[in-house]
Specification:
Layout: E1 2-8, H1 11-24, E2 30-38, E3 41-46, E4 57-63, H2 70-84, E5 89-95, H3 104-115, E6 124-129, H4 133-139, H5 143-147, H6 153-160, H7 175-184, H8 194-201, H9 206-211, H10 213-218, H11 220-233
Helix pairs in contact: 1-8
């Protein structure tokens, strides 16, 4: 069985990743479990569906509940996961925001500096969403009209002075604020609450997120994630 652990910054990333993995793979060949980390307390929030003996892939997602804490959580748990629990790889997913794009190389260098002396360094991958994971959601801009029929793409472009179909999505400085403004147009508020995360993630087209090469080109940071998952599970 291939076992992969993910560390994410919060519930939005965790919910998206659960739904992505559930769409990318076919039952009954995999399990997903999610654990919420609050200080020293670990709470299971999503349980596996199948006995381990029945599956070929096992995904464990750690929600660290705080921006910027992914590296620390990986540092604390990576040796046990890989050397004692048999995990083949660990993937950390974090936002670039609030750091500016010019600091992206430094964030990569910081991760390498922390872990390069570990004998399992080649089993660690850092994925940095540029600028936020919400940029990945905006790339599927048609999800807005799935949420509310009035949120037509042409109207949103005019109101927000953007071009959702052609803009470099990763150039948006604060993608979650764009979603906030769009939701506000229909009387909703996007505050990254659990209900907000479920609402937005339930309207995404996961076929695009699993297999659309043109879609991947718009969000290279996401493409790194799906390519790594593909590499590890083939």
């Amino acid at each position: 069985m291939v076992k992969i652990a993910f560390f994410v910054e919060g519930q939005t990333e965790r919910i998206f990743l659960e739904k992505l993995l559930d769409s990318y793979f076919t039952h009954p060949y995999f399990n997903i479990e999610s654990i919420q980390l609050v200080e020293d307390k670990a709470t299971i929030i999503t349980k596996a569906n199948y006995d381990h003996e029945e599956v070929k892939l096992y995904f464990l997602i750690f929600d660290v509940m705080r921006d910027g804490n992914v590296n620390g959580a990986i540092l604390e748990r990576s040796e046990n996961l890989i050397n004692r629990s048999g995990y083949s790889h660990i993937i950390g997913i974090r936002d670039l925001y609030p750091n500016p794009p010019r600091l992206l190389p430094q964030m990569v260098a910081d991760f390498n500096e922390i872990f390069r002396e570990r004998e399992f360094f080649n089993k660690l991958t850092q994925i940095i969403a540029v600028m936020e994971v919400e940029a990945w959601f905006i790339a599927d801009y048609e999800h807005f009209i799935r949420m509310d029929a009035s949120l037509r793409t042409s109207w949103l472009n005019d109101i927000l002075d953007i071009k959702l179909e052609t803009d470099n999505i990763e150039s948006y400085s604060h993608p979650s604020q764009i979603i906030f403004k769009i939701w506000r147009l229909v009387g909703k508020t996007y505050k990254k609450r659990e209900s907000d995360s479920w609402s937005i993630c339930s309207h995404l087209d996961y076929l695009k997120y699993c297999s659309n090469d043109e879609f991947f080109k718009r969000i290279p940071s996401y493409a790194r994630l799906i390519n790594k998952i593909d590499e590890l599970t083939k």
